Amino acid sequence: MDAKMRPENARFDVEFAHSKRPDRKRGGGWVTFPFIAGNVVLMGIAVGGANSNLIVYLIQKIGVKSIDAAQISNIVNGCMNLTPVVGAIIADSYFGCFAIVVVSSFIAFLGMMLFTLTASLPSLHPHQCPNAPSTAMCGGGPSTGQMAVLYSALTLMVIGIGGSRFTNVTMGANQFSTTRNQDVFFNWYFVALSSSTIIGSTIIVYIEDNVGWGLGLGICAASSAAAVVMFLMGKRFYRVNETGGSPFTELVRVVVASMVKWGMDKDGEAIAEYYYGSKLDGRVPPSQSFRFFNRAAIQVNGDTNPDGTVAKPWRLATVQQVEDLKTLIKLFPLWSSSILITVTVGIQLSMTVLQALKMDRHIGRTFSVPPGSFSIASLASVALTLPILDRAIYPAFRHYMGRAPTPLKRIGVGHILNFIGMAGSPWWSGPG
């Protein structure tokens, strides 16, 4: 921002540490895409092959009850969607995206290897009784030690996959200096992620069900190892950003500073001197929305050192940090609107596998669709829809309407389609 005063309605450019605009001279660009996409694809194949068939594996190979298998699968999937937040915080605050992706991918490989051993070594899984149903295990099911090894493998997989899944997309976006290139990268990133998961959920799952669990999971382990190698091959091309501290810590400081200055005179707030940090941060007054947080940026005696730096970081925040928190609060309704839909979709996917186990899945006389492959419908729709949106529908809107639909409208249409799909699920399931 310029140091000069701008109009009050000026829009703040909200930037977190992980989204700093990189320097062109430090590498980056589309030359890095094959390596990042290669990591995504290879890891996606491994995750698709192992995770899509997890419920079936727990029931048929480990001897876990159906409802317990579904619960374990839901916990694993939930943790995989939560650990990326932890990985992002660590990447932003301490080690950077590159280190987190490498370490997380290697941890995922270790988890895949241990998971493969649970299927390959007879001592790590129960023995099936001869001439008995596929779920009948001799000795009353898995032992405590066998379950401990299995849970250790799943834990490593969750940490590794969660830590790398969306940290690599942040690193990929940082390779580009224009918003347009970043938008294209995001679209093709999710195409690569969905397509690779489809491959794992079909080909690898078929091998697991019809050839052997050891071979299928071994391919997943090999694919995860190749993902690490593929990502490291592009190291000399990557544009690596410096870490700048956790943005989440800065947001918490704004809340604490606002509460500390709770009793500050509101009349004095209008003429108060706000703290902007560096002179390059500008002198735009804070917005009037959520005015309570403006108090965090009011500078009083003792808040700063003689050189202008912050002396009490938990009592003073910059105007930009205050505006960052306000922007996050404004996004909360949009973010929270997806929670209930995500919960129902997650439950539906796990129940679909259990339902598929009871269905006649034959197509023709010989081929039978694996139950773990029934979840690819949603993935296939993502892989097919995103290129159509990016290359056909949005350009058509720009040509005929003058502009493409706003992100808010796109999300709204997506929620409507999700509602229609969930409402139609009971009809497809039939009575009972």
TrEMBL record:
**What keywords are assigned to this protein?**
Membrane, Transmembrane, Transmembrane helix
Task: Please provide an example of a Pfam family that matches this protein in its UniProt record.
Answer: PTR2
Where found in the cell? Membrane
- State the GO CC annotations: membrane
The GO terms this record gives for MF are:
transmembrane transporter activity
Q: Which residues cross the membrane?
A: 30-50, 70-91, 98-124, 144-163, 184-207, 213-233, 334-357, 369-389, 410-428
Question: According to Swiss-Prot or TrEMBL, what is its membrane topology?
Answer: Multi-pass membrane protein
Q: What is its main location?
A: membrane
The record's family statement is: Belongs to the major facilitator superfamily. Proton-dependent oligopeptide transporter (POT/PTR) (TC 2.A.17) family.
- Protein name as it appears in the record: Nitrate excretion transporter 1
